[in-house]
Inverse folding.
């Protein structure tokens, strides 16, 4: 995982990717804070996503609607998906991510769905 | 002898393209105002008639070429060469989600236009399920003049700004708490009579959702007798002092049921003091039978 909670997950296919800002941006990742977090196959990624979602819900200041409500709706959808719901909640999660990214006031809300969406898209977590 | 220069200073203008149409507006004009302001088709919630908005609701978002994110049209000034789109799949998605986020967390039943916008943008606040977290607050009734129902509050900041630096300068309320737990609150959440509230009611005037409501209206709604179709509005001038504030009396069945002030009044800009806002009972004391 690159760039901390607001960054994104790189998958096994990305192991040779140079840690370079421009190169990472090309493939939809970010260097962010510079953190590289390595997860092996024993890590419970669903639990990681729950923790990231809870983190952003907790960190939202509450000023704008997309982040204030989006972060809690994101967390709720992840909890449901972790319990085994399907496609409808995945598409809900995508919808929430789009609005938070496009309409939040600050960078926190705009990036609050990054890690979660990258885990869904690149690693197939929650699917 | 110097000739008198009677040419007026030129108003600086900027030219931009909005939805494919070239417009020229005065510098500083917001995108929303360049589009025609309230009612131009762009939905607004935290944008009031008399308050400079905090662009907190994010329902008026539009696309500006070159901007990574959408921008709030209520606050973003038009700049030279700006290319704006006010309707697209991306914009509609954000508006739909904001309407769903609010509709699934607070009671918007008294908020104007929400139903038509939900239909227009395909918003379905029920799709978050019955377990979705809601702002669940008891109605605060702690004085005789107005009630506060924060389960209807969208945190538009208008009451905070009306009470604070934009109008009243009383600074009695502000946002307390963070994230989903953020609420409008008095200092230490004390009851209004224990706060510095001067009961000007200017917060009620700007509240777009009915979260702040005159007790007279609240009681009639509870009793099922509030009926705006039967109400008439009478504009008059307050007789208490020499300022001459404009009052708008809302009258139902020959009784004043609430007092507002026309937002476009050059004297009040919609604001009043406690006497003009609440001191109307003397006008309708009726002699008793004996």
């Amino acid at each position: 995982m690159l760039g901390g909670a607001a960054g994104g997950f790189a998958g096994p296919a990305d192991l040779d990717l140079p840690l370079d800002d421009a190169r990472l941006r090309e493939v939809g990742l970010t260097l962010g804070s510079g953190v590289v977090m390595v997860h092996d196959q024993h890590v419970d990624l669903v639990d990681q996503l729950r923790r990231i979602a809870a983190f952003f819900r907790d960190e939202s200041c509450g000023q704008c609607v997309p982040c204030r409500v989006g972060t809690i709706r994101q967390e709720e959808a992840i909890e449901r998906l972790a319990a085994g719901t399907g496609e409808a909640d995945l598409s809900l999660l995508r919808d929430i991510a789009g609005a938070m990214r496009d309409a939040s006031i600050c960078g926190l809300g705009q990036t609050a769905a990054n890690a979660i969406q990258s885990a869904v898209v690149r690693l197939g977590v929650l699917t | 002898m110097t000739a008198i220069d009677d040419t007026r200073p030129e108003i600086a203008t900027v030219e931009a393209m909005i939805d494919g149409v070239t417009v020229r507006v005065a510098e500083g004009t917001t995108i929303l105002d360049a589009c025609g302001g309230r009612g131009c088709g762009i939905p607004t919630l935290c944008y009031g008639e008399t308050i400079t908005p905090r662009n907190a609701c994010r329902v008026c978002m539009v696309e500006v070429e070159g901007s990574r994110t959408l921008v709030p049209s209520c606050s973003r000034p038009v700049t030279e060469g700006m290319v704006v789109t006010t309707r697209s799949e991306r914009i509609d998605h954000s508006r739909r989600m904001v309407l769903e986020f609010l509709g699934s967390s607070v009671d918007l039943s008294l908020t104007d236009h929400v139903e038509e916008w939900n239909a227009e943008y395909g918003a379905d606040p029920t799709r978050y399920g019955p377990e979705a977290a809601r702002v669940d607050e008891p109605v605060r009734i702690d004085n005789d003049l107005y009630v506060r129902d924060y389960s209807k509050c969208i945190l538009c900041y208008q009451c905070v700004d009306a009470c604070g630096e934009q109008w009243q300068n009383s600074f009695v309320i502000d946002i307390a708490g963070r994230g989903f737990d953020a609420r409008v609150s008095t200092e230490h959440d004390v009851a209004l009579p224990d706060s510095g509230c001067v009961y000007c009611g200017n917060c009620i005037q700007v509240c777009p959702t009915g979260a702040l409501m005159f007790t007279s209206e609240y009681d009639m709604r509870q009793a099922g007798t509030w009926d705006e179709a039967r109400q008439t509005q009478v504009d008059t001038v307050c007789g208490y002092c020499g300022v001459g504030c404009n009052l708008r009396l809302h009258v139902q069945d020959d009784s004043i049921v609430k007092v507002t002030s026309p937002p476009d009044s050059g004297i009040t800009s919609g604001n009043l003091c406690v006497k003009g806002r609440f001191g109307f009972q003397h006008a309708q004391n009726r002699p008793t039978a004996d």
User: Anything to note?
Assistant: The CA atoms of residues 2 and 121 of chain A lie 15 Å apart.
